[in-house]
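Chain A, query sequence.
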Amino acid sequence: MLHKTVMLIALVPSLALAGPKEANEAFVKGQAAYKAKSYAEAERLFRKAVNEDSANAQFRLPLAKSMYKQKRYDEAIHELKQLIKIAPTMAAARYQMALVQRKAGMASPLPADQTAYLKEAVGFYKGYLAVAQQDPDGYYGLAETYRLLGEARLSISNYERYVELEKRPKEQKYVKKAKQKIADLKAALAGGVVAGQKPVLSKAAAPYHRKIAAQSIVQGDSFRAAGNASMAADSYRDATLRDPKSLEAHFKLGGVLAETGDLKGAQTALLAANKLDPTSEPIKGNLKKVTETLAKVGEKKKEEESGDLATGLDLLSKSQFEQALISLAKAADAKPNHHAVHLALGTCQLAMDNRIGALKSYGRALVLRPDLSLAHFGLAEVYRL
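Chain A, predicted structure.
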């Protein structure tokens, strides 16, 4: 739920400022960027803090959240796994992992992946609730996950626990939603659906799932008409999960994601719609537009990436290390998650005998690409020296 993200962010400042000065400064600036919804900038600053003090768990949590806000779920999951290794008892990390896994499951186009993500989410919600038994948000998230998996009775029991615990005035709208979902699920069970039914994400949707999917589409239409594209996308996505064969849900999800600028998500949704009806001209037309726009964006991105990085590599090949360092540092600021930039930066720093800098750059490259043999070789060379 939205308020949980805000609440957990609010807990961080009182705990995190125990590292090096540069890390703390980057962390504070990152918080300001996050609050301003500049998530890419927040990620860059939180990454800087983590690079300065990688053992500080409180720096890594907002880094993962910044990635989550940009819908880069797998990268957020990777950071959270590192965080849980550092701080295995940190309840907030388990809650965030559960949330990201659930959202990743909702966003995945493949039923098998959807189920895998959602089952992981269940495990992390349970782990969180083991130490935060009175937190209503954990029960709401677990109920939502069970609902997506088609576990109606488990979903009902967790919604009921949420309703019992939730006393905050501002959250009563969620209590109302939970009560409605309880009623819908109980009505579905009364219609003959048993607890051992196949998951929501199975190939053929159960009749009551199709009914609720239709309701989600109507809800999405209302949000879209009101100009709330994000909530509309969530509703349409929920409909596709409940009824994977709903042409309308996939088509509308593709449309609203394109409006929000999530072109890859739009392409995935429209490809699913096209698979259901290859002859539909509106679907083919929208898919063509999105695919062409993605190609243009990709070309522009390549041009941007090729600038400082290409210059830096050229200077590096000519042993002009000081000039190369300037270009590569700019490239790293512009593309903090580009493994090739950090690899080149590490090589340049090693050539200039900046072993600490090289160590950090090679390490960052390996975080992004653990299988990068050149980065492993570079680290070995640093340690040898």
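The radius of gyration is 23 Å. The first helix runs from residue 2 to 11.
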